[in-house]
Each structure stands twice: as C-alpha cells, then as structure tokens.
Amino acid sequence: MDKILHFIERHKYGILITVVVHIGIFVYFQIATYKEAVLFQPWEFTSAQDEVQDDIEITPDQIETPEERALLNPQEEVTSFVKNENEKRIQTNKDNVNYTSSYQKQSAEQLENDFEQSLKDEIQRKREERNGKKSTEATDVKQDNSKNNPDKNNPQTNPSSSEAISGKTMVSFSLMNRHPLNHNDWYVRNPGYTCGNVNGIVTVAISVDLGGVVTSATIIEEQSQNASSCMLQRAKEYALKSRFNYSGEAPKKQEGTITYRFVYRE
Description:
Layout: H1 2-10, H2 12-32, H3 66-72, E1 79-84, E2 91-92, H4 108-131, H5 136-148, E3 164-165, E4 169-174, E5 200-208, E6 214-219, H6 229-241, E7 254-262
Parallel strand pairs: 1-4, 2-3
Antiparallel strand pairs: 4-7, 5-6, 5-7
C-alpha cells in the first residue's frame, strides 16, 4: 500500500495532466459531433388518397392467356398414354380400357413379318451409309412389295371399332400413316416424370426413314412452353429413341413431330 501511495505522490502531476487531457478530448468530441435537430413537415393526410402513377409497362406477351393457363395447370388431368394426333378412331375416356395410339388388326405372323422387314431395312440403311451410296435395286423391290400389299403397313386405312383415348396425354405424335413399331407404344417412350415437379411442353420435329428409325430431332421453340434445359434435353433424347413401323410407301425422309408434356407430380 505504501508503494502505491509513494508512486501516486511521485507522479501526481503526470496523472493530473493525463486526466485533464482525456476530459478535454471527451468534451471536444461531444461538441464536434453535436447535430442540430431537423424539423420535418407534418404529413398531409389529404394527399394519401391520390392515385399513384404506375410506370411499369406490361406487354401483351407477358399476359398469360386462358389457353396457356389451361395448358400448364398443375391440377389438369393428363394421362400417361401415347396419342396419335392424326387419330381417326372414336375418342373416349372409358375406365378399364387399355388405350393405345394405334389399333392393330393384323395377325401375329403379319406383325413378325413387318418387324423382320424393318430390321432388314435398317441393316440396308446402315450399309448404304457406310458405303456412301444407295442401292436403287433394293428400294425398287420394297416399293413393288408395298404396291402388292397397300394396306400392310397402314392400319389407319383399315376400318376399326376400337376406341382411342381422348383428352391430354403426356406423349403425342404426328406422323402420317405411321404407328409405333409393332403397335407397341413403348417405342414412343415417355420422359414426362424425369425433370422434377415442373410443368412444361416440348415439341420436337423429327425425320423418319423408311424403316421407321428417327434420324434427326430438332426442338420447335415456338411450340414449346415453360421448357427447362432438362426438358429440352430429355425430349430430344427420347425422340431419337423412338421407332415407328416400316413403310415402303413413305418418303425416304418423312417429317413429323412428337410432343412431350412434362407434368407436376406431388
């Protein structure tokens, strides 16, 4: 204790000067940072009812039409069937019916022959691509066979009492006088649940050769709506996987479309 008192006694002037300096600095900053109060004008409630001018311009393209709302409505019922947009059969929504995009009236032997012919045509096409030339003789034989059996590969020309699915489907295609290979809709497969819980529609332009193989697929942007990058990728990928029936009467490069509807699934 004596040491502390001795230290204070010895340095009392220095301690006093330090205290005075700190007090002076404190007073200086208090005065320097003082701000004069600002008086605000009171709010006039009479102008609160005035209409505020909206400078946001909405273009017609930004307005969602009733057709678009119906197209992308998550609550809309969309079936997972494949639909032929050129369907000529009566359309219905009966329960417990195994709907397909085409009606096969041919025998099992006929279907087997068609499938065999499609394989031969695909082998011939690959051989022509590899050699860089086309065999006109093989093409003439196919055309002669088609003339002898004009309805062989065109079930649409046969009268049918079977019914087709009505309403919106997740997959639909438009390819005149063609149907999925062996009348099996699996060959026009459905990617509608592969891109998450988002609604969207993608239409793909396809080119099909005589054997029913899809040789090219291009997205039609103006016919696609709310399409994400995943939807665009899946639609093109699945379009190239599609297979249709062999048709000797079809052009060597037949154009058509496949529309994929991606739907919200809870």
